[in-house]
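Re: the pair you flagged

First of the two:
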Amino acid sequence: MNNSYLSLDWGGTKLLIGEVSEEGKILQSKRYETGYVNQTEAVDVLFQSLDNYIQTAGWAGPKSPTAIGVGIIGRIDNKNGTWFQIDANRTEPIPLAEKVSKRYHLPCFIDNDVKSATRAEMLFGEGKNSKDFIYLNVGTGIAAGFVVEGKLIRGSHFNAGEVGHTLVGFGVGAKCICGRQDCVELLASGIGFDTCARILKQKYPTKLDIYDSPHRVDVREIVKLYQENDELCMHILDNAIEALSSLIMNLVRVTDPDTVVLGGGVVSNPFIFDRLKQKLINHTMRFVTNGVMLSRLNPDFIGLIGAAAVAINK
């Protein structure tokens, strides 16, 4: 077997650990729940989960992986392997790559989860056909990876791509952790659908189960009820699609891509994707010559492939 990479994808709700070939094929994987944690707790959970994975799954082939790649939420210094923060309220610079490498005796490389997914696109997806593209992830939250002339944009503080904190003109009244109100992430992500449902549930009749449930509403249920003309679900979903289309057209004006790749569980829903494309205005999108498309990489595993891509790139 050729080289393989031990990959960790820490997203908004879960940690996925697996082994990925240098061709981007997932050889095996296992899911672990994470929950709301600070960075120190997150490192403990990561180590406990990885210990369990090694003990229970082991290696996919006869030899150990070449390196470890970690894609994780928050602000990351990819070059030096430092994890600065999950968000502004959970900030503690940690030399995560060094800690993982010392514990498991393998080279370790880390990056932000969406930048990791963008790396996957660059190596195994639409990046083969484009040097100027946007990867927009719409899942639990919203963020983007910008590739310009073949290079992934990071910014002076490794915070480029946090486009979920963009205003798109809706007055729902959702207060964001960034200090503003009605950011697109609070309208059109998994978090956003739940937020809007709870804010607007008194204004529109609905069959959606949100009144006593501590769990986030299921976007698939919103789509299902939309098709049954549920007023709340129609209002929420129409707002979300309008907000996402505005975001995409705003971003296209910034970096002039020839390709826009969409990923994440929310936008991968065919019902949402089809209506989203209908909202994009031809004049604004005329230079996106390769089109707006869903990632060909499995949305459930693109982060895992991306974590491997981070290690392969290093």
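Second of the two:
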Amino acid sequence: MAGNSQRRGATRKPGSKKGATVGSGGQRRKGLEGRGPTPKAEDRVYHAAHKRKVADEKRVPTGRGGAARGTERAGTSRGGASRGGGPKGRGSVQEIVAGRNSVLEALRARIPVEVVYLASRLDADDRTREIVDIVAGRGYDLLEVGKPELDRLTDGAVHQGVAIKVPPYEYADVDDLLDAAEASGRPPLVVALDGVTDPRNLGAVLRSAGAFGAHGVLVPERRAAGVTASAWKVSAGAAARVPVARATNLVRALGELKKAGCFVVGLDAGGTTAIGDLQLATEPLVVVAGSEGKGLSRLVREACDVVASIPIGSDTESLNAAVATGISLYEVARLRREA
């Protein structure tokens, strides 16, 4: 009603006016203060690193009495070659060797072992029993893990319930291969690989080298396969017996071997002689195999004293490095026996 002084309206109650605020006066200083440095991941109880730290602290070496339960995250290489600082030395990553035969051969050869993994509820056989006996006798750390954890550690490889973590592979020098030949009392026989990038091929070459008496394998440091877990697996333990040298420059290393009295024989489909008729087989020998696609590089081919070939059917274009090397080493071993 107009002019009604009793009408209620938006009136301020006495004493409710806030008024002006004079400065912050440090009222929000506490809110601006930091919480200190961020704790390390392993010190944060909710972090995965803290759980791994606790599991590692609980892990203890085992004796013949049984396995310690727990898990450990292994620093494994996922399909790449171990990298090192030069032709001789260790790489920068650790490797997982999986499979009963590979693990048993590695243990028999006394390669360095950091941890042994056994799957829980493992179906024991003669190999696993020998593995457990060796591990117990040498005091290696033994962990019993579930199959999913073992699958993760081995990156899904066929592990047969057994795996070991080994330090990075220690490469030899070219001179070490010659020393091994001298100690054996036989003419040197070395395999060199030019541009072979598949570690499984390297593993197969190592297996053939061990079977036919080669004194070592020579690989380039770059753009070539190294001794990884895949190579260990395929070699079936031969990587523990056959030394592998790594050269910064393959052509230069072949030159050093030639100066030491070795003949260099390259394997190529267009070779001038069949490998089975090689007259140099009884001499100190270096057999060089190239990649299946590109074959021998130009400089490596020029460094060869002889280029030999393997007679194959016309329907087959070529053999891969591992197969060609195995056949060639067999022929060299046969010619040496018949000499």
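The first helix runs from residue 29 to 32.

-B.
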